[in-house]
Structures are given as C-alpha cells and as structure tokens.
Amino acid sequence: MDRRRVVLLFGGRSSEHSISCATAGGVLGAIDRDRFEVIPVGITRDGAFVLESDDPARFALDPAHLPEVVDNGTRVRWPDRAGSRELRVVDASGERSLGEVDVVFPILHGRFGEDGTVQGMLELVGLPFVGNGVLASAIGMDKHMTKTVLEGAGIAVAPWVRLSRPALAADPELWDRRIRTLGLPAFVKPARAGSSVGVTKVSDWSELDAALDVAFAEDRTVLVESAVSGREIEVAVLEGRDGGDARVSLAGEIVVSGREFYDFEAKYLDAPGIELVCPTELGDGELFELQRIAQRAFDAIGGEGLARVDVFLTGEGYVVNEVNTMPGFTPISMFPSCWLASGLSYPELITELIEVGLARGSR
User: Fold this and answer.
1) How far is CA 285 from CA 146, 181, 248, 254, 299, in A?
2) What's the rounded mean pLDDT across residues 214-221?
C-alpha cells in the first residue's frame, strides 16, 4: 500500500508555540508509519517555515525546558498555485523537492494558526488539510464570536462583556457599570488566546485593572465573564463520515481541588491541585444531553474535523464555556483521552482525522 504524505505543521507565532510543539511530538511518536510518510514543518516564533526534525523526543513537554521551533536556516516553500501539491525546501545545499503532499495536519494552537489564517493559506493553494476551515476556526478562536453564535443557536453560555482599550478609555464609568453587573467572582480573558494564557480569576473588584492588563497583553479585545459554579466537563467531537452527524465521545471531567482554576501551569507544567477524570460519571440522560449540545455547538460554528466542547454542569443544566477547534493533542490531553475511553486509540484517532481530511479534500 502506498503511503500518504502528510505535512505535520506546528509551532507558530502565538503564545501557545511550545504547546503546539508538544502536541506535534505526540503525533510524531504515534502516527502509523506504515500508512503515512511525515514531513515535519515547524513555524518559528517569528513566522519562518522550516523543515524540522522527525524526532518526537525533541518536542517532549518538559516543564524545565519547553520545546520550540528554532530557525535552522531552512525554508519550506509551499506550492505557488492551486493544482500543484509539490513542497520544496531551500537549505545550504540549494533547493530540492520534498514531493507531492496529500494532506496537511496543522497542529497549531492560538492566533496565526488556529484562527483560520493558516487554513486560508492552505485553501488558497488547494492543499487538503485536517481540521476546521476558515470560518469555524475564526469563530472558535474568538471567545466573543463563539458566545454570540452559540447564544444565537439557543445554547446557554455565561454572561459576558467584551471591551477594548479605546472603548474603556472613552467611557470608563460606563464599562465599569457593565462589568460590575456580572458579579463576583468573574474571569478576565483575552478574546483570542487558548491554554488559559492571559486568564485571571477576579474575586475582588480591586483586582480588575491588573487582570485587564494581563489579558490586554495577549489581545486587543478582552472578555469579562461571570464565573459559573458547576462541574467542569469536556467532550471530544469528530466530524461525521459521509454526511452523517458529528460523533461525540464519552465525557471527561476536570476536578479542581487546590487551585483557583484550571490554569496554564496545571494544564502543561504538572502543577498540583487538578485531577483529570476520564470517563467521568454522568447519568445516561446527562450524557445524552451533553452529547446533543456538543453536536449542536459543533454544527453552529460550522465545525469540520474535530473540536473539544467544554461545559459546566450546573443545577440548571449545561452552560457551554468554549468550543476548541484544535484542542490539546498530546497522548495525555483530554481530547484523545475521551476518545480512548470511547474505544478509539491515539494512533487510530490520528488516522481517522487524516482520513477525514483526505476525504474532504477529494470532494
């Protein structure tokens, strides 16, 4: 059987650069090499496309030394027109072909990758790719737009206020009144960032200004959001096959016992106070309703490929917190863990995502 040539694209310009690298390391170590030939392409922190090492160990997530794409002097050249799928590289020995590409797997988190920008580039040159397209990626990256779309689809979300520095400066008293109507505690978040980067829990209004500064350091627009009291539940979603409904996994739960919330350090740096339980215990009716809501949320943003839907289970039902269009994908991340609990191994999940991307590219 001829192997399909897959470009694994990772790194990027966002603050989640190292998490993208760690995710790529997991995929490099688990992808079925009998079925797929991998071309690892890294994006440096300043946006250069380089031919990277096909070595999973190089991108291991070490809290003492986070992995990154370093400029090694190579430059990857994408096809210069639709209809060509040839990838080329320039290095010290000159320019050479890397062959015809079957599909691109963009393992990118955050802005300049997960937000539809790279997806748009790939669509322009006609390269099939894994995951969500331009629209769903852009909606899912922007928390304000996600909430707006979900609310319009009749899906419960936490109350929020969106603001910018110019708006805040123009009428600080107005924005202060609007924000205070949300009550305490509240969360301050960059509109377009992930992995809890730039997120602060505010328990007293005296903490608000500092929290806004942290969030504005990541993005020019910020959300202040009412805290929701409830169980933190996540499910993984895969695009349906042959026009069928999206498939939803069993549920996982984030149990917070010694931290304010599930922050970056707890997610990636092995900080204490968090337990991930997968599968978690839900009644049959609760799981059915959660899976139904996840399907609706995925469809509402125009989802393709994959997503992780994060919710709170409150006394009144589910409140959707986020639709993550490129969730963490290391072997121990919640997205693959939910599918493992549902009967799909990590290597099988990678194969499924690639095959869905290939099938979409052939339509």
Assistant:
1) 26, 34, 15, 20, 21
2) 93
C-alpha distances out from residue 185 to 179, 180, 226, 261, Å: 11, 10, 7, 12
pLDDT in tens, 116-143: 999 999 999 999 999 999 999 999 999 9
212 HSE (CA, 13 A, CB side): 18
Predicted pLDDT of residue 362: 61
Predicted confidence (pLDDT) per residue in 65-88, tens digit: 889 999 999 999 999 999 899 999
Class of domain 140-156+229-361: alpha beta
DSSP state of 35: T
SS3 for 196?
coil
CATH class of 4-129: alpha beta
Query: Rounded mean pLDDT of the chain?
Result: 92
Residue 277, H or E segment: strand 274-277
Superfamily of domain 160-226: ATP-grasp fold, A domain (3.30.1490.20)
